[in-house]
Amino acid sequence: MKIGVDLGGTNLRVGLVDEGQIVKMLATRCPADQPEGVVVDAICDLIAQLWNPMVTGIGVGVPSLVDSVQGIVYNVVNIPSMKKVCLKDILSARFATRVAINNDANCFTLGVHKYGEGKPYKHLVGITVGTGLGAGLIINGKLYSGHNTGAGEIGCLPYSGHNFEYYCSSAFFLRNYGSDAANLATTLTDEVAVINAWKEFGCHLGHLVCSVIDAYDPEAVVFGGGIAQNYSMFYPAMLREIYKFPFPETVRRLHVLHETKEDVALLGAAQLVEE
Questions:
Q1: 254-272 pLDDT per residue, tens
Q2: Stretch among 6-10, 41-45, 211-215 having the lowest mean pLDDT
Q3: How far apart are CA 121 and CA 46, in angstroms?
Q4: Domain 2-106+264-274 in this protein, CATH class
Q5: What is the pLDDT of residues 95-116, one digit of tens each?
Q6: Cα–Cα distance measured from residue 79 to residue 135, given in angstroms and rounded to the nearest whole number
Q7: Domain ranges, ordered by start, for the chain
Q8: Which residues pair with 103 in a beta bridge?
Q9: What's the pTM value of the predicted model, to 2 decimals?
Q10: pLDDT tens digits, 157-197
């Protein structure tokens, strides 16, 4: 058994995982506006509630860059107090077990590869589309994190006067329509306007995938995250842009997929201790 931790600025989720299945999960609001120690205590409290002698390790996904060797997290997104936290040392001392820590998008990608839509593929890119835009890489069947767990973070790449995250995250909807993606249909009462908004968003995602092909030439690109729940709304426009890629055989052999397995990022976090 392993324990997976998914730390976010809004929610904190901890799951007990056995043979790729979440046996039990606990969740709470993350005390993101509190001092570092309060956040760490909240993590430890949920882990302690799930702890049993069969647990062989703890894996943690965080929205930040990570020194994965030392287990130090830096400048956690939306948790201002967590500027430099030796989280691996803290958890190892508290629970006397193996601890592995990585970026949350990498945990999603690892979970997709081990338990989700990415299982058949040795070379894939996982993309999380939500408040921000995250990505992770599987190369030759292994998670490739880079030196600071930031490998594959394509959201920061320049695009159309800004970067991809500017156009391929919730910022796109908030900036153009004054609404997040989940409430777009309520904000735009005209159905045609809603469809056109998703078409424009899909066009930007198509350009993103073309850049992914140029950079990594994967077998598969797998989408997840909150906005990806609306996959059917942006997929056609995204695919049209992908088909414009100058090498049609590359596109023909590419699988563009939507991950539907729940809590795959939590499963990926738990899997870190086996990597």
A1: 999 999 998 999 999 999 9
A2: 6-10
A3: 34
A4: alpha beta
A5: 999 999 999 999 999 999 999 9
A6: 20
A7: 2-106+264-274, 120-258
A8: 62
A9: 0.95
A10: 999 999 999 999 999 999 999 999 989 988 998 999 999 99
Distances from the Cα of 21 to the Cα of 139, 206, 269, angstroms: 24, 33, 13
36-50 and 87-95 are packed helices; what angle lies between their axes, rounded to 10 degrees? 40
H or E element in which residue 224 lies: strand 220-224
Separation between Cα atoms, residue 143 and residue 136, nearest integer Å: 8
Residues 6+ away with beta carbon under 8 Å from 15: 3, 4, 6, 22, 23, 24, 25, 26, 50, 263, 266, 267, 270
Are 62 and 273 a contacting pair, CB within 8 Å?
Answer: no
Q: Which CATH architecture has domain 120-258?
A: 2-Layer Sandwich (3.30)
Task: Give yes or no on whether 2-106+264-274 and 120-258 have one common fold.
Answer: yes
